[in-house]
UniProtKB/TrEMBL annotation:
It comes from Streptomyces alboflavus. Residues 20-264 form the ABC transporter domain. Residues 1-20 are annotated as: Disordered. GO terms for biological process: peptide transport; transmembrane transport. Keywords: ATP-binding, Nucleotide-binding, Transport. GO terms for molecular function: ATP binding; ATP hydrolysis activity. Pfam families: ABC_tran, oligo_HPY. The keyword Zinc does not apply. InterPro entries: AAA+_ATPase, ABC_transp_ATP-bind, ABC_transporter-like_ATP-bd, ABC_transporter-like_CS, Oligopep_ABC_C, P-loop_NTPase. Belongs to the ABC transporter superfamily. This is Peptide ABC transporter ATPase.
Length: 339
């Protein structure tokens, strides 16, 4: 199940304490014109261990980018807690600045995240200057560009974004994150804007950074093929909650949740007929009762849930928040009835 040449992730350390933990995280935004608040993230537990790559997967609008921004400290949670390296995230200015040095964001569109008036050198050095770096700036910028695969780095110092290919621009963005020597990067659709020929190179780079630097990563994507290529674990998100999680091979070869099954069914290499979900994801200000996927669920619509004796539960009985720890877990009445 690959969209690029299969990559070989190295195994992350097992049994170690999580580097980052989200505990019952919730993020709500005011509703429009007096409507109920939009529950963009509605109860999420998630762990990321040192040296681990976790893929957060789901359709547009499911809450995955809001969750990622909350983990970065860019969006304070309405309730719940983010813990990093054993300490709760402190949202005060100095503490948050120190946290953002250790946890860096890589955006999906390098053209939008790079200032067209800044050279590559200035783009990569910006983080050092913000954080008051006292060492050899030129050496640090050169080392970051080299790690990101732009060699020799001096050749790129005075170039501008428009003089680079899409893959080179994405490497500059990655170098801008690496220059601060973070422990975790959050990559939001890191290859979505790239040609297929370049995607595998960037994914291989992320895997190599994990191997060489012990870097952890949360990769936010709608692409399950990407998750297969790069992740150790996958968390499938729907309408503000994680509905299935586990080792990437377990989830993507034997998906239990109907939503995960539907997402996988439309990949080019999938066998059988694709599952076409009806309608759009519900409005997060009007989360349906019962299983939040039930209005679009192919298992419920086909009568299979009725035959399993869980159709009423699907429509009326809420499901618990999944644990953020390892191990395959699924929030689905029908899947639970089969196991």
């Amino acid at each position: 199940m690959t969209t690029e040449a299969t990559l070989e992730p190295t195994e992350p350390p097992t049994g170690s304490a999580p580097l980052l933990t989200a505990s019952d995280l919730r993020v709500s935004f005011p509703g429009r014109r007096g409507a109920d608040p939009a529950r963009a993230v509605d109860g999420v537990d998630l762990d990321i261990r040192r040296g681990e790559i976790v893929a957060l997967v789901g359709e547009s609008g499911c809450g995955k980018t809001t969750l990622a921004r909350s983990l970065l400290g860019l969006v304070p949670p309405t309730s719940g807690r983010v813990t990093f390296d054993g300490r709760p995230l402190d949202y005060r200015g100095r503490a948050l600045k120190a946290y953002r040095k250790r946890v860096q964001l890589v955006l999906q569109d390098p053209s939008g995240s790079l200032n067209p008036r800044h050279t590559v050198y200035e783009a990569v050095a910006e983080g050092l200057r913000i954080h008051g770096y006292g060492g050899d700036e030129r050496a640090a910028v050169g080392a970051a560009l080299s790690r990101a695969g732009l060699r020799p780095p001096e050749r790129f110092f005075l170039r501008y974004p428009h003089e680079l290919s899409g893959g080179q621009r994405q490497r500059v963005v990655i170098a801008g994150a690496l220059v601060l020597e973070p422990e975790l990067i959050v990559a939001d659709e890191p290859v979505a804007s790239l040609d297929a020929s370049v995607r595998g190179e960037i994914l291989a780079l992320l895997l190599r950074l994990r191997e060489d630097l012990g870097l952890s990563a949360l990769v936010v994507t709608h692409d399950l093929g990407l998750a297969w290529n790069i992740a150790d674990r996958v968390a499938v998100m729907y309408l503000g909650r994680i509905v299935e999680t586990g080792a990437v091979e377990d989830v993507l070869t034997a998906p239990q949740h109907p939503y995960t099954q539907a997402l996988l069914s439309v990949l080019p290499e999938a066998e059988g007929e694709p599952v076409v979900l009806t309608g759009e994801p519900p409005d997060p200000s009007r989360v349906p009762g019962g299983c939040r996927f039930h209005a679009r669920c192919q298992v419920l619509a086909s009568g299979e849930a009725e035959r399993a004796g869980v159709a009423q539960d699907c429509r009326t009985k809420d499901l618990p928040v999944l644990s953020g720890a390892g191990g395959t877990q699924v929030a689905c009445h029908w899947a639970a009835s089969r196991g």
